[in-house]
Structures are given as C-alpha cells and as structure tokens.
Amino acid sequence: MMGEWIRKSCARFDPDSCINVTLVNSWIDVADDGVCPKASAGAGPLQGLTVRNVTIRSGSHAIKFGSNTDTTMRDVLFDNITIIDSNGGMGIQQRSEGDVINITWSNINVQTRYRAPRWWGNGDWVAVTNGPQRSPTHGIGRIANISFINITVEAENGGLISGLTNGLHGLLLDNVRVKIVTSSNYSKGLGPKCFTPKGMPVACMGTRDYRPLPDSNLTHHNLCSYYCRTEWVISLVAIHSHRSVFSESLVLSPRHVFASWVWC
Fold first, then answer.
1. CA atoms of 102 and 115, how far apart (whole Å)
2. What per-residue confidence (pLDDT) applies to 19?
3. What is the pLDDT of residue 160?
4. pLDDT, tens digit, for every residue of 207-253?
5. How many CB atoms lie within 10 A of CB 175?
6. Alpha carbon of 235 to those of 78, 182, 205: distances in Å?
7. DSSP string across 186-226
8. What distance in Å separates the CA atoms of residue 66 and residue 211, rounded to the nearest whole number?
9. What is the pLDDT of residue 219?
10. Over the stretch 44-69, which tens digit does the pLDDT of each residue have?
11. Which of 156, 162, 153 is nearest to 206 (CA)?
12. pTM: predicted TM-score of the whole model, two decimal places
C-alpha cells in the first residue's frame, strides 16, 4: 500500500468498526498514519484485528488508534512489525466514549525520526493519550490491558504514555529496549518549528504531544525514553533504556508502580 508523500490524507490501512480482520505479509508506505484502527459512532465495535509480518513507513504514526474511538475497540494484536523512517511509532489517541481494551504489541522493531513536525507524530516511539477532542465535558472511555512485549527502539524522541482524563489500567512493558539518537536536521534545530494549536512556536525536540484536544499543547521538556502520567497500574519487566545527549532516560509519575528488573 503506497501513497503520495505530498498528500497527508492519503490511502492507508484504515479498518473501521470491523470484526475479525487480518492483515499479513504487507508493506505500507504513506504520508498519513500507516495502520489506523477506528470505531466510528453508529458503526459498531472493532474487535479481533490482527496485523502480522508488516513493514510500515509513515510520515505520521506508523500505527495509531483513533482519533475515532466512539465505540469499543478490543482484542487487537500487532506482531512481528517493522517500523522504519517514521514520524511516530505506536499510538493510541483515545478521544471519545469507546473503550480501548486488550491491545498487544509484540516483536516490534521501531525506528522513528523528526520528519514532519506539523503533522501527526513527533519522532516519538510510543504515544498513548486520552482526553476529549470535542469539548472538555465530552465522555471518554477506558484504556485497559495494553501490552508492549519484545520491543526494540531507535528514536529521536522519547515515549509518552498518559492517562490524564480517565486513567490507564493494566499497562505491561516487557523486554522493551529504547535508544535515543539524533538522525535528522530537525533534531539539530535546522528544520521548521512546531506550533501549538494556538499558533505559538515551540521547540520540536523532546516535546509531549497531546493533540487533538480542545486546548492541547506540544509541551517542551527534556527528552526522556519514557514519560508515564497516569493514576493506574503499570508493570515494568526488563526495561532497557539508553540515553544519548539528552537528560532523563526513565521518568515515571503514576500513583502505583509495580516494577522489577529496571535498568536506565
């Protein structure tokens, strides 16, 4: 599946409210999100999606749930995936009432870089966020039972895992290896600036991206491999993180953390 890189809303694999769909042995090369599961209002849930043996190159997120999360999305497996030369890696944009439950990412190699600071992704290898897109009072479903197993990463930005609006319950990171590197002109400050939704320029490098929210920001901070912000339970098993020229390699700020064998 190939798309023109000058067109941001170009073709990609975009299953919407599907049951028992499988994608195997494929190559995706697009400017927009590569694999983008959705569950639109009135169309029913998404359940039983399997994506295996797929290589993805994306000018946005290689894999991203949402932002149409109006009904339940559950029982999804991504296995043996290669993500190359992408602006974002694995993502969940939980922006509506539907729950996102039982999602497994396993045996995945991720390589991300700053490619298009004004589009989805920001060199981050993982971005999991929840919050109301339409208004601050809009209902938000749960994110629960999310597993990252055997993940190898080389990225220009860290990862964001956030449960600010409705929490995140049952997060597992098992044998996740992250190396932060510099590989593009953007990381050296030579690319175009990033902007907040209100048009304020901000540094692209090391930002946490909460778009699309009514008053979202690209919040600048020192780069880290993991930034977790949630009030629920996180399990960490054999997490390896290597820092290059930036500061913190591992930042966790949940209420409860059960961790073992963590190296920074």
1. 30
2. 97
3. 81
4. 666 666 655 545 544 444 454 544 444 455 545 544 443 333 334 43
5. 16
6. 20, 29, 28
7. GGGT-SPPEE-TTS-EE--TTEEE--SSTT--EEE----SE
8. 12
9. 52
10. 999 999 999 999 999 889 999 987 88
11. 156
12. 0.81
Q: Which segments of the chain does DSSP mark as H helices, in order? A: none
Q: Return the pLDDT at 166.
A: 73
| Average pLDDT score over the chain | 76
Cα–Cα dist 254/27, whole Å: 37
Round to whole Å and give the CA distance between 96 and 36.
16
In the chain, beta strands by DSSP E: 22-30, 46-47, 50-58, 61-65, 73-86, 88-94, 100-112, 124-130, 143-155, 159-162, 168-180, 194-195, 201-202, 207-209, 218-220, 226-229, 233-242, 250-252, 256-263
d(CA 180, CA 155): 5
What whole-number distance in Å separates Cα of residue 191 and Cα of residue 19? 42
Average pLDDT over residues 144-167: 84
Whole-number Å distance between alpha carbons of 34 and 208: 21
**Residue 73 CA: distances (Å) to CA of 101, 139, 213, 239:** 6, 16, 20, 27
What type of residue sits at position 153? Answer: V
155 pairs with which residues across the strands?
180
